[in-house]
Specification:
Blueprint lengths: L1 E3 L9 E7 L19 E3 L2 E3 L3 H19 L7 E7 L9 H7 L8 E4 L11 E6 L1 E10 L5 E2 H4 L6 H10 L22 H9 L4 H8 L12 H4 L5 E9 L5 E2 L2 E10 L5 H15 L5 E10 L2 E2 L5 H14 L4 E5 L5 H8 L4 E3 L15 E3 H19 L5
Parallel strand pairs: 2-5, 2-6, 6-16, 7-15
Antiparallel strand pairs: 1-5, 3-4, 4-17, 7-14, 8-12, 8-13, 9-11, 10-12
Helix pairs in contact: 1-11, 2-10, 9-11
Amino acid sequence: IYGSTSDTPAAAPTLLIYGHYDVQSAAPLADWNSDPFEPVLRGDSLYARGAADMKGQIMACLCALESISRTGPTPINIKFLIEGEEELGSPHLGDFLITHRNLLSCDFSLNLDAGMAGPNSPTIVYALRGAMLCILQVTGPSHDLHSGIFGGLVYNPIHALSELIAGLHDAAGRVTLPGFYDNVRSICVEEQAELTQIAQDEALLSEQLGVSALWGEHGYSPVEWTSIRPTLDVIQFQGGHPKTAIPSEATASISMRLVPDQDPNEIHQALRQYLEAHSPSMVSWDLHWQVGIPPSLMDRGSPGVQALSRALESAWGKPPVFRRGGGTIPVVPMIQEILGVESLLTGFSLPTDNMHGPDEKIHLPTWKRGIAAVIYFIHNLAEQAPG
């Protein structure tokens, strides 16, 4: 979906606002306390799938623009780009950006898909982790085999895949792929100090996550695990059937979150090298590439970031927190590469809004402050020269 304002002088700066209206599955529905697609107000929060991620964020921008338009002409040119495939990795967005590069040209790009550190902590995200997703398939016998007759005679693909997965981390929680950390850059003293200020209570975090203890790469804190360090996780494992048979194959989906300057293609090749070196000779394997999205790192001193920082401070009465995001937003590196513009990342969803989970919600008092912040931001940009 594309739209733009028409009441602004052509010489004014241009802001491209990105959003997505697609959502994750609401399953399992039994975990919801209300219909996920019928918004319900409970207390100060509105519950519905997509309320936080990210229909509520789009509405904040529309409400801000509506408010501005009631007081006179829009002070800058505003373009909207709203898609419906973000949760799938935005597979067609890159081609759209290339085809319509001139239509989407802009001086600044605003993306509210990043969220806040807390209700009283307005946040600017200046870096995102990239992603690499693939499926590893291990094959043994040509067909399922009776476990009584053939058990102990052939190597079980589930066992082989389990061994390969177990070897992907060492005892210190580090990923064992060759060269995996070679391009991971160190952070500066200022960034390290900021991470220390937002340190998380490990006991409280463990309780919130429902685990007995946290686990991660030795030598780093939880906030570092989820922001400046790369990760590797198996997010799905399949093998066998509900019968007493040795399966012919087993598969695993492997997800990695990458940091600057890791390249998804290089990491994919590193995984292949690991498999070539460690896969048992009695089975064969195949690695299927799914998604590769590079990490993003923005200039914290840019005019757009400064305008956004002042806007958030005006709305909350305090300077924003600067942090790196642990997730991946596919459009950010696309806009940077194709349109040549860094995305300004913030948002008004909270860590407790349960995005992608049951009872997703948006905290309305925070959301309304967000509307005010967008209004301030647009007026701040109007005071700056394009670029």
